[in-house]
Design a protein that fits this description.
- The structure is a homodimer.
- By secondary structure, the first copy, chain A, is α/β, with parallel strands linked by helices.
- Chain A folds into 2 domains: 49 residues, RecR Domain 1 (Helicase, Ruva Protein, domain 3, Orthogonal Bundle); 140 residues, Dna Topoisomerase Vi A Subunit, Chain: A, domain 2 (3-Layer(aba) Sandwich), CATH 3.40.1360.
- Helices cover 41% and strands 14% of the residues of chain A.
- The first copy, chain A, is built from 8 helices and 8 strands; from the N terminus they run H-H-H-E-E-H-E-H-E-H-E-H-E-E-E-H.
- Chain A has a 4-stranded parallel β-sheet with strand order 4-3-5-8. Chain A has a two-stranded antiparallel ribbon with strand order 1-2. Chain A has a two-stranded antiparallel sheet with strand order 6-7.
- In chain A, helix 5 links the parallel strand 3 and strand 4.
- In chain A, helix 1 packs across helix 2.
- The longest helix of chain A is centred in the N-terminal third of the chain and has 17 residues.
- The radius of gyration of chain A is 23 Å and the shape is globular.
- Chains A and B meet through helix 1, helix 2, helix 3, strand 2 and helix 5 of A and helix 1, helix 2, helix 3, strand 2 and helix 5 of B.
Chain lengths: 219, 219
């Protein structure tokens, strides 16, 4: 049982040690660092955290984090708004943006369906995705979800939901606003295979099996 | 080069990644956690850090962290004020308090003499220690410093400073206030030896050599 020489210190250590992956010892080390550095620096940290939490927005279209109602990607007319990449998290958007290979827009689900964690479709931004598909002229939905059981389940659930938008016979969906019919968007998933610079001998058998099955011809 | 979807997010990640041992990726993970948890929780963290940095005191006697001008140890009449344990940091005070084996008071130097880091005696609370020795009736000074070159150097420096307080011939020091002479305090250092539960074969040779030289008789 640690006896803190200061209640303020104890409170700060307690709050910091609530952070994931930070135990009491690390929290103590961090807090003492904050005490020793310039006062302005510590106040700037506290301010940045409070401001972020109080003033942050989530884009009304794609639900990515944003400083305004519409995020920079959704507000950009030079992005391809007919191509929507469905991801789990904000980090995934940042990872894909970092590739500089994608010119479409996003839709952040906020997670994946996971019965074990009590997360169902209603806890995710799936209904808002369906609204976008009904409302906008979307050519392609890219499911960029985790290559896990939960990611695959979520992707399949969304695919079935999109299919359900189609009139029973044709291959068109009814526009929710104008009542016109339009083609169902193409639904794609990210390629599975061995990762760049991974060593073949250490690649797990499912990945290797899929990489074999999905082999492409050299040209 | 990461492109942040939000300036507030970028600012928060930047501030968090200034913390020691926390890189950009960890900072991002922590900040997104702060975004996802209850707003009150994040504001409580920010508040605790800002309050700590703004309102914390350092004990005017021992320089330990404190919520008031005099820390709980120094303000406690049941502690032995004639025994002063000299330590480097607040953490050291907490570690010694946790042993529940010490009933004296402390003096926190704030570090050790380290020419490489540009830390000299004047950067530490050494002069204030000398003032306490001149002013108070101190029976024993325990040097509880790191068992390193810097710790040893600092301990030896303090020992010489205390010796210098003595009149050239006798073994007494002159009281700064009342002008009376009193005996020089005993100066002790922590025992060096093998640590509890350490394996002998992995103990370094200096430690093992000192443990041999300082062996005690079983009774």
């Amino acid at each position: 049982m640690v006896n803190y020489p200061s209640k303020l210190l104890e409170k700060a250590v307690e709050e910091v040690s609530r952070l994931p992956g930070i135990g009491r010892r690390s929290a103590m080390r961090l807090v003492l660092h904050l005490l020793r550095q310039e006062k302005e620096q510590t106040l700037a940290l506290a301010e940045a955290l409070a401001t972020l939490r109080s003033e942050v927005h989530y884009c009304r279209e794609c639900h990515n984090i944003s400083d305004s109602e519409l995020c920079e990607v959704c507000a950009n007319p030079r992005r391809d708004h007919a191509m929507v990449c469905v991801v789990q998290t904000i980090e995934d958007v940042m990872a894909i943006e970092a590739t500089q290979m994608y010119r479409g827009v996003y839709h952040v689900l906020g997670g994946v369906i996971s019965p074990i964690d009590g997360i169902g479709p209603r806890d995710l931004e799936i209904e808002s995705l369906m609204q976008r598909i009904r409302r906008d002229n979307i050519r392609e939905i890219i499911l960029a979800l985790s290559p896990t059981m939960e990611g695959d389940t979520t992707g399949f659930y969304i695919f079935r939901q999109i299919q359900a938008l189609m009139p029973s016979a044709g291959e068109e969906i009814q526009d929710s606003v104008e009542g016109v019919h339009r083609p169902m968007p193409k639904v794609t998933v990210l390629a599975r295979g061995i990762a760049q610079n991974d060593e073949l001998q250490y690649t797990d058998e499912i990945t290797l099996g899929r990489a074999l099955a999905g082999r492409t011809e050299m040209k």
